[in-house]
Amino acid sequence: MKNLILFAFLFSICITNAQEFQLTDSYDITNQRSSGQEEEDTWMVDVIVSDNPESHVATLSISDFGLLDEIRISVLRNPDLEDINEILKVTLEYNACCSSTEEFYYLVTSDNDYIALPSIKNEYAYEPISDIHYIFPNQSFGKEGTILRAALQYTETYTIKDIKVLRSIAWNDDDFDTEDAITAINY
Questions:
Q1: Measured between alpha carbons, how far is 60 from 114 in angstroms, rounded to an integer?
Q2: What is the helix (H) or strand (E) element at residue 7, kind and residue range?
Q3: What are the distances in angstroms from CA 91 to CA 4, 60, 62?
Q4: Burial of 172 (0-12, 13-18, 19+ CB in 10 A)
Q5: What is the pLDDT of residue 101?
Q6: Which residue blocks in 31-124 are alpha helix, DSSP H?
């Protein structure tokens, strides 16, 4: 009985510690302009800090601007990575015959510098059976001191059925930029 109570306690701690990205107005999109490729419908926008417009986070190139449906900005606070205060995620959502997203992730350091992770693109035809995300240590399925890039597969009720780790990045490791992808296949 003691083991069951201990297990339930530890499980509840894991659930309450797991966080998800929350929409924020701390950052904004500004300076929409053509990229000089009008025939390709490509535009450039800047991501800035809302209360300090001179604080430039990134410039994003938006292809197929006419198909852009929405831009969402969200943050994950206290991701449990050394010297990182939050993770900023900018999601571009496109709608045409099928929908797709492109997500840009920025690690916000204690010194208010920004470290970009490679962007992630997902396309959804009729049902989102799987998609790719970064998983940080303070999230469900997160791993201490590690950023995971994973493909999540869902059931018909949109609960996570399986996770395939595509890449594992050890944070503050000497080989941060050169680590090989690690793949775990579950059968």
A1: 14
A2: helix 2-17
A3: 41, 11, 11
A4: exposed
A5: 92
A6: none
